[in-house]
Amino acid sequence: MSNVAYSRHDDIAVLTIQNPPVNALSLAVRQGLMAGMDQAEADSGVRAVLIVGEGRAFIAGADITEFGKTPQAPWLPDVCNRIEASPLLVVGSMHGVSLGGGLEVALAAHYRIAQPSSRVGLPEVHLGLIPGAGATQRLPRLIGVEKALDAITTGRHIKAPEALEMGIIDKVEEGDPEAVGLAYTRSLLDEGASRRAVSEMPSPQAIDWHAAYDATLKKGRGQISPAQAVRAVQASVEQSFEEGMKTERQMFMDLMKTDQREGMIHAFFSERAVGNLPELKGVEPRALQSIGVIGGGTMGAGIATAAVLAGFEVVLIEMKDEAAAAAHERIAGNLSGAVKRGKITQQKFDALTTVALTVSTNYDSLASVDLVVEAVFEDMDVKKDVFGKLDAVCKPGCVLATNTSYLDVNEIADSTSRPADVIGLHFFSPAHVMKLLEVVVADKTAADVVATGFALGKALGKTSVRAGVCDGFIGNRILATYRTAADHMVLDGATPYQIDAALEKFGFAMGPFAVADLAGLDIGWMTRKRKAPTRHADERVPTYIDRLCEQGHFGQKTGQGYYIYEKGKRGGVPNPAITRLIEEEQTALGITPRAFTDAEIVRRYMSAMVNEAAKVVGEGIAKRPLDVDMTLVFGYGFPRYWGGPMKWADLQGLGAVLSDIETYAQEDAWFWQPAPLLTKLVAEGRTFDDLNKEAAK
Ligand code: CAA
């Protein structure tokens, strides 16, 4: 059945794409467009063809669900060439989004009109690909190499007014897409406009390809598709259109076979699946209009900033007047950053810092809020005291959330008279910037409270992941383990600087020691002290970094940690004191340092991460491997193009990962205890992704 309807309006044929929800270019749509063009050309009296999309978008691109399967003819490049080669005048009328192959169909049309609110873009690089239906050849001919490279290598969504300025579209007009499209086509016919095939436009001007390639590769931190896009655009200058199309196709097909493409597409679907939990089917979230925040430090102020920006009324509670004033200033500082970046106007800033935000020292101000997030000091007694007060003042049905990073949410919940209303909402600092939210579900948390946590995350623009209760939940628990693997490598001879460099080369935004400096070394120091009494005798815990903390050096905030930071400079230089302290500890422990290759560093670090992640899934703390993947990608700088650590493990082969763990266990059986789930999957010849698929059924 064709998904493209044919209709006739005097001498204009209209092809309407009908493939909900977003008019992806599935096989039936490609066939329908081909048939529609044939029909229009055979239809006597037709002088022009208008292509429109029904529903919420013009076309959101190729059908991603077809990727990885054998492509079936007609292929999209042929469909685009067919449209462009028509002797009739072809016009595209775009609304909603026109992405990837969707924009390529529009570029094959001879003229393009779009709704002012619509967006165009070539997001293929976010799927580990390059455009595969002519955009790398047509767009540079239409708007020049530099602007084309900006669109293709960033994959950004471009709003219609900017697209008009860039020359991607010809006209912007508000109205029903078919009606404005018909009027525009009519005016073109009336003025005798001729066919205008982009492929026939002159070749664009060359640039310094070498420099562009290197800069793009560096910016992508090892992601290959944006850099490949530079090469494809180069072909638009150096080759004929036909040859360039072949070059683009070959590169597209080669990228299709890469692990990065698989990882990126896993991330695309996982990002959408995290909030799709069977337990929430049919469960309505509670109404959310006003939010309370307890504590106005960096975290509380960040949460309050995110909440006012999302349109909530916010009441923030601090203990004393001075602290309340400081909290207000912190939030205003965050919001003025949003003004500077052009995200909000000064007028909006004024409204948000006055009308939307109330800062108070009186818990009674929370009497009518719908949800409260506590972000006070990480101490169980302090938290219980806060929850006691909330229990007394908050209205029935108010959701009581803790932002604790590791404390037992069950214990907090049980200290109140309404444990079903208690949940963990673990934000990441700075909370108005970081995308991840762990929704921590305690034993007695009501389903509609969980749904409300997800609804809040969505309203704040976060990617929310469901986590169960354990020390560190999903992210910090796994972090503690892979950080430990890195610490062990330092004791055995790798330097923190080699480890950071190797992992940054792997694709992490920052290495673990640079991250520790940024987060504050006092956090890890406190955790080590907290865990010391229950530590197993075989646990290897380096103490050299405690010596630095004892001297008051906590990383970036004090100017010294693993690195030394100069005022005004972002990065640091290796701290010689660290090297000395490590050597002293190695001597005391009788360790002869050995050399590590970068590959071994990555392997050990990743094996530790995957092993702990498998325990987290096996114990039900994360419901599915994809929940772990999205936690690490959105909260811990894990390279998106690997899809997440569990996808990475699938791509390596779980047998190989388990075999590494067993090898490492020969030196340290305590730390490298294989996760039962990993062992089971290897024995059964299954993957983590199999578990994702089973959970989706
Ligand atoms: N193919 C298949 N399914 C798609 C799709 C696509 N291109 N784009 C979106 N969908 C699906 C989503 O998976 C989702 O499905 P479920 O409801 O079953 O979860 C549904 O459409 C709605 O999508 P969202 O929930 O994401 O809705 P949204 O309104 O938040 O966003 C969107 C809509 C902006 C189109 C967003 O979905 C998006 O960015 N899609 C991807 C666009 C893209 O990358 N296109 C390029 C494809 S590659 C290409 O075209 C290569 C080529 O040159 C041949």
From TrEMBL:
- Spell out the subcellular localization from the entry: Peroxisome
GO molecular function terms listed in the Swiss-Prot or TrEMBL record? (3S)-3-hydroxyacyl-CoA dehydrogenase (NAD+) activity; enoyl-CoA hydratase activity; isomerase activity; NAD+ binding
* Origin species: Sulfitobacter brevis
Q: State the family named in the UniProt similarity comment for this chain.
A: In the N-terminal section; belongs to the enoyl-CoA hydratase/isomerase family.
Domain (3-hydroxyacyl-CoA dehydrogenase C-terminal): residue spans on this chain: 472-565, 601-686
**The keyword Oxidoreductase appears for this protein:** yes
Query: In what residue span(s) does the 3-hydroxyacyl-CoA dehydrogenase NAD binding domain sit?
Result: 291-467
**Main location per UniProt?**
other
What protein name applies here? 3-hydroxyacyl-CoA dehydrogenase
User: Which keywords does this Swiss-Prot/TrEMBL entry list?
Assistant: Fatty acid metabolism, Isomerase, Lipid degradation, Lipid metabolism, Lyase, Multifunctional enzyme, NAD, Oxidoreductase, Peroxisome
* Catalytic activities: a (3S)-3-hydroxyacyl-CoA + NAD(+) = a 3-oxoacyl-CoA + NADH + H(+)
Q: In which pathway does it act?
A: Lipid metabolism; fatty acid beta-oxidation
**Source species taxonomy:** Bacteria, Pseudomonadati, Pseudomonadota, Alphaproteobacteria, Rhodobacterales
Which GO BP annotation is one of this protein's?
A: fatty acid beta-oxidation
